Amino acid sequence: MKAAKFLGLFFFGLFFALSLLLYASVQAADKPIEISYANMFPPTHIQSILGEEWGKEVEKRTNGKVKIVYYPGQTLLKGPKTYDGVIDGIADMGMSVLGYHRGVFPTMEAIDLPMGYPSGKVATFVINDFYEKFQPPALADKVKVMYLHAHGPGLFHSKKPIRTMEDLKGLKVRCYGFNAKEVEALGGVPVAMSQAEVYEALQKGVADATISPVEVLKGWKQAEVTKYTTDSNAVGYTSGLYVVMNKDKWNSLPKDVQDVIEQVNKEWIVKEGEAWDKSDIEGREFALSLGHEFIPLSDEEMARWKKTVKPVIDEYIKNAEAKGLPGGEYVAFIEESIKKHQNQK
């Protein structure tokens, strides 16, 4: 009798424990996979909005299997800390600027050269072509690249008019990373800082001008603290931006989730390029509404600028090749890629 009672209690306990385990496993299966995403752009900026929409699209296409926990406006990681923060797992993925990590991406620095990018769409296609072709280890080996993108031509926005190269001489120009070389070559004084610091620097006189795409005039409200933009497109640089995921996090995702993300990534390359161009148009319109003046350079002056910045490109090639990198091949590839995408509809 006692044995039967003991067996009854034993099986009841076993059933209860198995029920708890089954319930816990069902709950775990129902719980979405969370991916934290840090973005340096302020919440209202198109590049922040696109980042958030990327997350919603992934959630939708995985039927809620994935949940993106989104942190815009540097609330989780500052722009210059994003790459290391993703590697260290502070965020599962992040968006920021390659040039904020000077020396970390010697291959990708070629993208930021003053190559005369005609648009953000072309620059975005070029940077993705470039990455696929050369697979630089700092990106390919250390993180999972979601996609890359790049803005339209970087121009000079200033408090005083810049109509000739001589007008740049001695001006304190906000820049970052590699485009400091362009500023220096043209006679300006480089003042390095991230985009989030520029408004206050211009406002307080720490900088007299900035070199950035036209979109910053609205996206970062810099038309409020500048009065002029010099249309120097022929020497327009771009900034390469990354969207990357921690490699361990990526490898932990189920194959069906990875496939969805890869497809969304391909679509977002096109969206990013189009968004950069649209935001340049909006930046110009916003600036004009405040009385901002856009200064076109004469053909003769533009030729002077191109000749003056060419040594910056030559120096990059020389330094890259000294490190065992095919700098000349990088530059030639970018030139051909710009032509290819510029000629495509």
Annotation keywords:
345 residues, alpha/beta, 6-stranded mixed beta sheet, 5-stranded mixed beta sheet, 12 helices, 17% strand
Which secondary structure elements does this structure contain, and how are they paired or packed?
Elements: H1 2-30, E1 33-39, H2 46-61, E2 66-71, H3 82-87, E3 93-97, H4 120-134, H5 137-140, E4 143-150, E5 155-158, E6 172-175, H6 180-185, E7 189-192, H7 198-204, E8 209-212, H8 216-219, E9 228-231, E10 240-246, H9 247-252, H10 255-289, E11 293-296, H11 299-322, H12 327-343
Helix pairs in contact: 2-10, 4-10, 4-12, 11-12
Folded structure, characterized:
- 49% of the residues lie in helices and 17% in strands.
- It has helices at 2-30, 46-61, 82-87, 120-134, 137-140, 180-185, 198-204, 216-219, 247-252, 255-289, 299-322, 327-343; strands at 33-39, 66-71, 93-97, 143-150, 155-158, 172-175, 189-192, 209-212, 228-231, 240-246, 293-296.
- The strands form 2 sheets. Strands 7-6-8-5-9-11 form a 6-stranded mixed β-sheet.
- Helix 2 (46-61) packs antiparallel against helix 10, helix 4 packs across helix 12 (327-343) and helix 11 (299-322) crosses helix 12 (327-343).
- The radius of gyration is 25 Å and the shape is globular.
- The N and C termini lie far apart (87 Å).
- Mean pLDDT is 92; it is low at 23-28.
